[in-house]
Amino acid sequence: MQAVPPEPDMVQLLTPEGVRVEHPDYPLEITDDEIQSLYRDLVLVRRVDTEAIALQRQGELGLWASLLGQEGAQVGAGRALRPHDMAFPTYREHGVAWCRDVDPLVLLGLFRGTNLGGWDPADNNFNLYTIVIGAQTLHAAGYAMGVVRDGAVGTGDPDRDRRAGLFRRRRVQPG
Questions:
Q1: Which helix (H) or strand (E) holds 83?
Q2: Domain for residue 21, yes or no?
Q3: Phi, then psi, of 164 in degrees rounded to 5
Q4: pTM for the whole thing?
Q5: Is the residue at 155 inside a domain?
Q6: pLDDT along the chain (175 residues), means of 10
Q7: Could you give the CA distance from residue 136 to residue 138 in angstroms, rounded to a whole number?
């Protein structure tokens, strides 16, 4: 009978209260200006979401999938993408869209039914929203296969290598 391998050591970067824990393998190298910029994005993304919720409740938007509570994950993921990486969002990755410079008014047009997306995915490397749950996985996989065929991955050159960013949001219920 084989022994079960031991669990890897846990890495803790935050306490339950949200206080940063220093770890030698994961140093936090961020300036005050970068923190301010990230916080600005969080606030603005929340504001866009709040306005869109109000518009939906007034009947001005046919659909709006709120990102409330996920702003940090989305802005963090959006900021982690390199300019030449392609993002494949589901229908609520408004924070990633913000980080990819998709105009919120154009984005709202999709949910109001006045446009079919309104942005060119090649301009922002942010694909059109996928309303069908799970379909973005197929789009990202197909794109990634094309990137491999183009030889634009695994070169060791971060300015040339491309990635397909797949975004899937899972709501975690508190408690």
A1: none
A2: no
A3: -105, 115
A4: 0.78
A5: yes
A6: 65 86 89 95 97 96 93 93 89 94 94 89 91 83 84 78 62 46
A7: 5
Residue 87 tokens read as 């993002």
Count of structural domains within the chain: 1
Does residue 24 lie within any of the structural domains? Answer: no
Compute CA distances 146 → 28, 96, 116, 156, whole Å: 35, 23, 25, 18
Q: What helix, strand, coil percent values describe the chain, rounded to 5?
A: 40, 5, 55
Question: Do the beta carbons of residue 95 and residue 87 sit within 8 Å?
Answer: no
Q: What are phi and psi of 29, to 5 degrees?
A: -115, 90
CA distances from 117 to 11, 71, 91, 130 (A): 40, 21, 11, 10
Which CATH number do you get for residue 125?
A: 3.40.50.970
Quote the CA–CA distance of 111 and 62 in Å, as a whole number.
6
Q: Which residues contact 87 (CB under 8 A, 6 or more apart)?
A: 78, 81, 93, 96, 100, 125, 126, 127, 165, 167
